[in-house]
């Protein structure tokens, strides 16, 4: 069984993430979505909320593809998380050249830590390349319409969170 790990903070999960998840499902038998516990980023949504959002958004993909998606929170090194879930492949999404520079360094470090785990890059769909969770949150905070960037359920969660702030 080929197991892939798609890590991120998913704060919140966007249509760009969903696009990468759907395409990654064609490459692996099981896709583990690693939801990072990254306190340094100061997430808008807590871990449980992010995990639930990812599960909700992935349910339809599982139904449609018949594939298997697991959601796995993690706080350790990415390479250790990959080992923990039995992944032989780490899936990373790329939007632009700036993403590649950071990811290139990460791959080098991960290969030095465990050369048996490959990293596969998937380019975001052209219509989704500009979507970044950070920008989506900023647009929502400033009263803009984020419905083009997230699913209706995530949009509603964002609006509720912004209204409470």
From TrEMBL:
Function: Reversibly transfers an adenylyl group from ATP to 4'-phosphopantetheine, yielding dephospho-CoA (dPCoA) and pyrophosphate.
Cross-referenced Pfam families: CTP_transf_like (PF01467)
GO terms of biological process kind: coenzyme A biosynthetic process
Native organism: Paracoccus siganidrum
This protein's pathway: Cofactor biosynthesis; coenzyme A biosynthesis; CoA from (R)-pantothenate: step 4/5
Site (Transition state stabilizer): 17
GO molecular function, one term: pantetheine-phosphate adenylyltransferase activity
Binding locations of substrate: 9, 41, 78, 92
Protein name: Phosphopantetheine adenylyltransferase
Complexes and interactors: Homohexamer.
Gene3D superfamilies for the chain: HUPs
NCBIfam families per the UniProt record, alphabetical: coaD_prev_kdtB, cyt_tran_rel
Family from the record: Belongs to the bacterial CoaD family.
Listed EC numbers: 2.7.7.3
Residues annotated as binding ATP: 9-10, 17, 93-95, 103, 128-134
Underlying gene: coaD
Subcellular location: Cytoplasm
Primary location recorded for the protein, binned into one broad class: cytoplasm
């Amino acid at each position: 069984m080929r197991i892939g790990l798609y890590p991120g903070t998913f704060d919140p999960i966007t249509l760009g993430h969903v696009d990468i998840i759907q395409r990654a499902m064609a490459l692996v038998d099981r896709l583990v979505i690693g939801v990072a516990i990254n306190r340094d980023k100061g997430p808008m949504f807590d871990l449980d909320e992010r995990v639930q959002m990812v599960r909700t958004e992935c349910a339809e993909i599982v139904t449609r593809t018949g594939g298997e998606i697991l959601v796995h929170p993690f706080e350790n090194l990415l390479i250790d998380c990959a080992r923990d879930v039995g992944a032989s492949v780490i899936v990373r999404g790329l939007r632009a050249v700036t993403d590649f520079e950071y990811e290139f360094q990460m791959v080098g470090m991960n290969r030095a830590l465990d050369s048996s785990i490959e990293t596969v890059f998937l380019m975001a769909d052209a219509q989704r390349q500009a979507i970044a969770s950070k920008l989506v949150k900023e647009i929502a905070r400033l009263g803009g319409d984020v419905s083009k960037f997230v699913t209706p359920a995530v949009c509603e969660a964002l609006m509720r969170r912004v209204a409470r702030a």
